[in-house]
Design a protein that fits this description.
Elements: H1 3-12, H2 21-28, E1 31-36, E2 41-43, E3 48-49, E4 51-57, E5 60-68, E6 71-80, E7 85-86, H3 89-93, E8 97-98, E9 102-105, E10 109-115, H4 116-125, H5 127-153
Antiparallel strand pairs: 1-10, 2-9, 3-8, 4-7, 4-10, 5-6, 5-9
Length: 155
């Protein structure tokens, strides 16, 4: 994926809606492209997480392993497709954290990986951009919490 195509993908996703061209240029400088086959994991619950992922193409289940008495297995928290975002805690906390869910590719998937530490550094250096990103991360967390509560209602 060429840089202009990556920037267009970043700009079109809901997570980075209304990002300035300057910040888009900066962010695209610390992104990489990852490809995953169907059935593989982008990350697993219990691993250390540091990055954000934006789905370019594919379909990913966000899953949480559960062990509630007679209920053992995993529950799908959310089903995510093109333009959706995964991860974020390390960007907010400034340190790696233990991931609370797994991201399982249901189809061959391509994602843009944003380095959480680099994004945080940009947020600290530019307070207006930092506020913009904190707002975007807050919306992402809100959506994830709502999805998790919805998944719990189905148990």
């Amino acid at each position: 994926m060429e840089k202009p195509e990556m920037q267009a993908t970043l700009q079109s996703c809901r997570f980075l809606k209304n990002i300035s061209p300057v910040h888009l240029e900066t962010i695209s400088g610390f992104c990489s492209i990852d490809h995953y086959e169907a059935g593989t994991y982008i990350f697993r619950q219990g691993d250390f997480g540091e990055d954000l992922f934006i789905i370019v193409d594919g379909y990913v289940f966000l899953e949480r392993a559960m062990d509630i008495g007679s209920h053992k297995g995993s529950v799908v928290i959310d089903a995510l497709g093109k333009g959706r975002t995964l991860g974020c805690w390390s960007t907010l906390l400034g340190e790696p954290h233990v991931l609370l869910s797994s991201a399982n590719c249901q189809k061959d998937s391509t994602v843009i990986r944003l380095k959480g530490g680099e994004l945080r550094k940009c947020m600290e250096e530019d307070t207006a951009f930092g506020f913009f990103m904190l707002e975007r991360l807050s919306f992402l967390l809100r959506d994830r919490i709502q999805a998790a509560y919805g998944a719990m209602d189905k148990i």
